[in-house]
């Protein structure tokens, strides 16, 4: 009889334990750590806003500034000049108004940044820049030098110009010797759509490898930073060596090579009203939770409206870094935010180390363009493409209608 009672009590205890475990699991608060009421913005947008590249053009010759220090210096001086522009008008131009002969400084912003983020970063209160449309994308700033110097903001469909009274700083960039740069010239034969011939000075190609996550301690640290209640989080180790963490609402997968995938199935409240600046603040907050210093990344793309936004970021290295994912080349960091909640993210955690130089140098860019019959080239730059382990040097070519990535080692399209 006593054995039957013990068995019954044991079954009752186990059943009760299972019931409470299930209740705890299913009734876990459906509120993300990143879905909180609107709070003052804590991130200084000027820390994560910088050009993706800067190219100095002088009568058909180009200098692609590849040193991160030089790019940041150009941007610092540019922002100083932008803040000083007061008593001048903002005019709208057409593409035909642009005379493409002469000296220019091209400041590129990847896929584009919105005008409100630029205004916030510059902390403008009185400037003709404020008259640019609130949702306008700025993909490039063209500093046009000569008799009538101007700064032109464009997304390649609209052009806004401001007269530049003092262009001495930008003039000093013409023929300047930078710490590191890629110099090339373009000779166009025939009409504007004719074949482009490039001449590029040889330079060493450095080899970099990503360390990824070298020990399990990193997994634990990231998980504790991301989840509210770590006690209900399950850990699943996959055969590939990656780890999955979930609390039933959110999921986090960490790969050995540093790839991080995150999603949140929480239903967001329509009562929360987060603007683009606040949403960017949440995205950067999430990046910091992953152990990435926000001063080591910069914004390269913005999409969305009405509380739903996605942001792309790159790393502040000497060359932009892209990631090869499922055959597509993407920015290394993407974060999607919905009314203050981080809904999804794909992040390549970069901890790279120098591993020597490639033997043989780069594949000739002129031959490459001829082999692939690429015409109408606007500019070419050196980037690195992360293949899951190594950073492969690549030519990033932009034409009037397309953009391409070619391996700088063998000339093949990536």
UniProtKB/TrEMBL annotation:
Alphabetical UniProt keywords: Membrane, Transmembrane, Transmembrane helix
Lineage of the species this protein comes from: Bacteria, Bacillati, Bacillota, Clostridia, Thermoanaerobacterales
Highest taxon listed in the record's lineage: Bacteria
TM helices/strands, residue ranges: 7-25
Regulatory protein YycH domain boundaries: 3-342
Protein name: Regulatory protein YycH domain-containing protein
InterPro entries: YycH, YycH/YycI_2
Keyword Cell inner membrane appears in the UniProt entry: no
């Amino acid at each position: 009889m006593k054995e039957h009672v013990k068995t019954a009590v044991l079954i009752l205890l186990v059943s009760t334990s299972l019931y409470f475990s299930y209740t705890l699991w299913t009734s876990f608060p459906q509120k993300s750590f990143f879905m909180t009421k609107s709070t003052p913005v804590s991130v200084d947008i000027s820390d994560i806003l910088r050009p993706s590249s800067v190219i100095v053009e002088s009568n058909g010759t180009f200098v692609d500034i590849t040193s991160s220090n030089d790019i940041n210096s150009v941007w610092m001086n540019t922002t100083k000049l932008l803040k000083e522009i007061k008593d001048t008008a903002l005019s709208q131009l057409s593409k035909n108004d642009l005379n493409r002969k002469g000296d220019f400084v091209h400041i590129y912003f990847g896929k584009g940044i919105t005008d409100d983020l630029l205004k916030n970063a510059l902390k403008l209160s009185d400037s003709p820049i404020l008259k640019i449309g609130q949702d306008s994308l700025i993909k490039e700033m063209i500093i046009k030098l000569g008799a009538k110097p101007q700064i032109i903001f464009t997304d390649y469909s609209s052009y806004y110009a401001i007269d530049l009274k003092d262009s001495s700083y930008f003039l000093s960039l013409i023929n300047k010797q930078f710490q590191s740069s890629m110099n090339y010239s373009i000779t166009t034969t025939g009409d504007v759509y004719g074949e482009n011939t490039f001449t590029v000075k040889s330079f060493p190609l450095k080899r970099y490898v990503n360390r990824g996550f070298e020990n399990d301690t990193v997994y634990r640290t990231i998980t504790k930073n991301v989840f509210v209640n770590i006690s209900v989080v399950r850990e699943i180790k996959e055969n590939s060596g990656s780890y999955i963490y979930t609390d039933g609402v959110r999921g986090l997968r960490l790969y050995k090579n540093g790839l991080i995938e995150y999603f949140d199935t929480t239903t967001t409240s329509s009562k929360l009203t987060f603007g683009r600046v606040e949403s960017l603040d949440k995205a950067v907050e999430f990046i910091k939770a992953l152990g990435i210093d926000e001063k080591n990344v910069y914004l390269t793309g913005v999409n969305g409206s009405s509380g739903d936004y996605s942001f792309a970021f790159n790393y502040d290295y000497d060359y932009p870094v892209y990631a090869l994912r499922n055959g597509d080349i993407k920015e290394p960091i993407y974060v999607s935010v919905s009314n203050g909640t981080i809904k999804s993210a794909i992040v390549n955690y970069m901890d790279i180390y120098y591993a020597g130089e490639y033997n043989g140098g780069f594949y000739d860019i002129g031959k490459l363009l001829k082999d692939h019959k690429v015409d109408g080239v606007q500019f070419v730059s050196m980037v690195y493409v992360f293949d899951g382990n190594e950073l492969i040097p690549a030519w990033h070519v932009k034409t009037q209608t397309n953009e391409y990535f070619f391996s700088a080692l063998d000339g093949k399209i990536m």
